Structures are given as C-alpha cells and as structure tokens.
Amino acid sequence: MNVKKRPLYKQLKQELIQKIERGELKPGDVLPPERELAKIFNMSRMTVRQAISELVNEYVLIRRHGSGTYVAEHKIPQGKKLKSFSEEMRLRGMLPGSKLCEKKIVLSPSANMAAELKSEGKLFMLKRLRLADLEPMAIETSLLPINRFPSLENRNFENESLYEILEEEYNIKMTKAQQKIEVRMPTPQESELLDINYTIPVFHFKQVTFDQNDTIFEVAHSVYRGDRYEIETEIYR
Amino acid sequence: MNVKKRPLYKQLKQELIQKIERGELKPGDVLPPERELAKIFNMSRMTVRQAISELVNEYVLIRRHGSGTYVAEHKIPQGKKLKSFSEEMRLRGMLPGSKLCEKKIVLSPSANMAAELKSEGKLFMLKRLRLADLEPMAIETSLLPINRFPSLENRNFENESLYEILEEEYNIKMTKAQQKIEVRMPTPQESELLDINYTIPVFHFKQVTFDQNDTIFEVAHSVYRGDRYEIETEIYR
DNA sequence: AAGTGGTCTAGACCACCGA
DNA sequence: CGGTGGTCTAGACCACTTC
Fold first, then answer.
1. Which of A143, A166, B1, B181: disulfide with A114, CB 3.0–4.6 Å?
2. Which of B171, B201, B230 is the closest to A185 by Cβ?
3. Domain boundaries defined on chain B
4. Taking Cα atoms as reference points, which of B234, B14, B145 lies closest to residue A207?
C-alpha cells in the first residue's frame, strides 16, 4: 500500500540529488542510462526524462546526446557575487578609499529615489566619494531606514565599511541585490566630485539590497566614472 | 513526403511566439487547451506540452492548473540568464528585429577584437543592427571561426536567429559568456546607425561565448543605445 | 554496430478550478 | 459538475557518439 501522493518524477529527482549530496555521484560522473533508470525505479522512461530534464534546467545535470547524462561540474559565478566597493577594488588590485560627502536624516527622500523604503519613515542618507588608488572612482549614496538602525548616524564613515557595521552591530547580512544600470552624462556636481570632464559618460547603478530575511534594507545609487571603470560579468544558460 | 527535419514541438513553439509577436495573442490571453492544440496541429498532447513547457521556462507563458495556459505579462526581469537579443527583448515586452549591415570573411580581425579566436584562422564576421519595436536598439558584431561553421556565410540573417542556426545546424549551444561592459560616446558611424544624437552615451559589451564543451565559439561586440537600454541584474552573496 | 539521448504517439487517470 | 493542466505508461523510431 503505497503512499504515492508525491509524483514519481519528483521522487526520482530527490533520489538523484541525495546521491550527489552524499557523494555517491560526483561532478563529471555518468548517470545510468535513462532506460536503465526506468527499470531500476520501476517507472517509464518518459517519467525518468521529466526528472532529469528538471535537474538539467537547474544546472545539476548535463545531457550529452549520444553519450550520456552527467553530473555537472560545480561552477562559481565569479562575476555574479555581491561585493562591496572595497572588496571589488581590492579584487582589481586597487587600494580602496572613502571620503564622506554628506550624512543626514531625511524624512521624505528626494523624488522616488527610495520608493522601496518609503513606508519605513525616516531614512538615513549616506553619501560618500569612493576612491581607488587615491583617485575618485564613484559616488555612492545609500539610504537606510533609521528605525532598523538606531544611532547609525553617529558613526564616522571615513574608514569604516558600511556593510561591516551593519553585519557586526545590527546583525544584517546582505544576501541579494537587484540592480538597474544606466549610462548617462554626469551632472555638473558629479563631474566636479569625480574630477572628470563633462564629456565623460558615467554608469549609474540603482540598487536595492536584501537581507537574510529577504527584506529590503537599503536603496543605493552609485555613479561610476566611465573612463576608469568597466563591469565584468559572467553569465550562464 | 514531409520535410520533417525540424522537431514538431519547436515548430509549435515558433508558431506560438509568432502569434504573440503579431498580436494575435496578447499578454493575459488564454491559449487553447492542450488537447485542442494537439488536434489543431495534428500532434500528440505530450508534444504540445513539451513546446509549452519550454515557453513557460522562458517566461513567455504561464500555466495555471485547472484553469488554463496564459500569455505572460511582460515585466519580469530575469537577470543572470544568458539570453539572445531576441529572447531578451521579448522578455521586456518588445518586438525584436534585425537588419543586416555587413557579412564577410576576414582573415586577420581588426586590431585585437578577437584575440581569443585568432588561432582559428579565417573568421566569419556578422554585423547587424538590432531593432526593438522597429527602432534601433543596438549594433551587434559577431566573429565566428569559419572552419567550425562551414557555409554559415551563405545564410540570410535578416529573419533568422544566429544562435538558433548554430544550435540547430551545427549543434552548438551557448552555455556561458564572459562580458566586459564599458560606457563611452558613440562613433559618428554608430550614432548614425543607432539614430541617436552624438551626445548620448552607449553601452559597449565585449563578449566571449562558450559552447557545451567549454570552448569559445564566438567573440561579439555590442553597442547599445544608452537612452533606450538599461541593464537589469540580480546578484547574490 | 551498439548504445545513448531526442522526439513522438495514443492513450489513461489524477488534481485543481470555476460556474 | 465539466474542463483544465499534471502525471504516467509502453511502446516506436530518429540522431548522435563511441568504438
């Protein structure tokens, strides 16, 4: 008397995942052929294929026509990792730095700069000029809800990492961020701060950052010099 | 005597995409039931399901158990997946298009545009103006080693997807791409092709694309209008 | 040539939704 | 309740890789 509520193909899927997690199937290993799996698990080949197809879509397995089905090599999407400015500059072999521009509490954020946080009341605004090898690289403006981070405004941000403070003092870890990236010409104020000619375009990053509870805790705008900065990324099918 | 080289489910897939592009199916519309589609196109229901499943994975359709299959509302940015120009524009709710600019075989690619492919001998160069809703959006220049893709130069690329040709005729699937993205001002030729003022900056994507064997099969440069295009992405810690 | 995954059929019954 | 998508079968032949 089977409790067969769970679909067969999902059972097989879970079985395969567990074999991989237990190390019985290692990256690069061949799976048994579909027809054999069908026999072993007493199901039809189409059902086996459905299980495998989903795992292929999830990058767990790889099919090779005429050859076999293999456990995928674990890949680390380097370019897709969430990094702070400091971490990223160090990765590029540059010395990161920071200069405080502005630090204040705002009631209604200018325009719709932080529509995602608007319901949170007062916001803490931090605007910093970010340096790489002592030269201006970007202007970073962060907005954080002050009720979640009391007395954050009393910190000195010249030589402190914002994300380190949030992690160590407020137990907030950034886990995910959504970005929209535009290109445009700098405003006069921006070209002066960044010390670039007004003919040099800039990247404008608009970011919302999520914590470990999948809650937005920051809205940030960053303006990067187009003559010194380029985005590097790696994407997968 | 059928010319049945193209799989049935891919034919149906294309049929459905075209119906959406022509506006015969609009976002939110219900598709005919699977059993009916099977009758209309004279194929089995499982084949219909395969076509629909792939479109669901590509966020073109949405299935609702017990209710029906619907055309997705465009708006969901799916940041980190490798997409072709056409796929991406469709995701953004725009109609993709293409205009051939140049198509030739080059011996030594200009400058170091394709250092990654240089050892491969002659290269096929394809330069296309990419349209979104009939307006210029980007200039795409692809370089491919001609020895891996014989007679690729004889294709007409006006209404054909490069990646679909590579996948179906040469069995090459793109699995990974590395990109460097710069911002700069357009050259006079670029601003004319893109139909933008010379004061509008552009994104310049430099991409190397890998196939299922982790071999580079394409080097591509794309120049996107900064006033119409923005990058949307999601990053994780 | 043998063995693999890729496509396809013509059914069947189940689970869910909406009137 | 009827109609929808969800799961599943037991075959068949094709296309590709490997030897």
1. A143
2. B201
3. 8-71, 76-231
4. B234
Q: Which residues pair with B204 in a beta bridge?
A: B182, B223
**In the CATH scheme, what architecture does the domain A76-231 have?**
3-Layer(aba) Sandwich (3.40)
CB contact set of B42 (below 8 Å; sequence gap of 6+) = none
Would you say the pTM of this structure is higher than 0.70?
Answer: yes
pLDDT value, residue B115: 63
Residues of chain A with pLDDT > 70, as a percent, come to 89
Per-residue model confidence as pLDDT tens digits over B173-230: 787 888 899 999 999 999 999 999 999 999 999 999 888 777 888 999 999 999 999 9
- Distance between CA atoms of residues A47 and B94, nearest Å: 36
- Domain range B8-71, its CATH number among 1.10.10.10, 3.90.226.10, 3.30.70.360, 2.60.120.580: 1.10.10.10
Q: HSE (CB half, 13 Å, CA atoms) of A63?
A: 15
DSSP for residue B31? P
Instruction: Calculate helix-pair angle for B8-21, B45-57, nearest 10 degrees.
Output: 50
CA-to-C1' span, B165 to D10 (A): 35
Angle subtended at Cα A26 by Cα A21 and Cα A31, rounded to the nearest 5 degrees? 100
Query: Could you check: is the Cβ of residue B2 within 7 Å of any atom of nucleic acid strand D?
Result: no
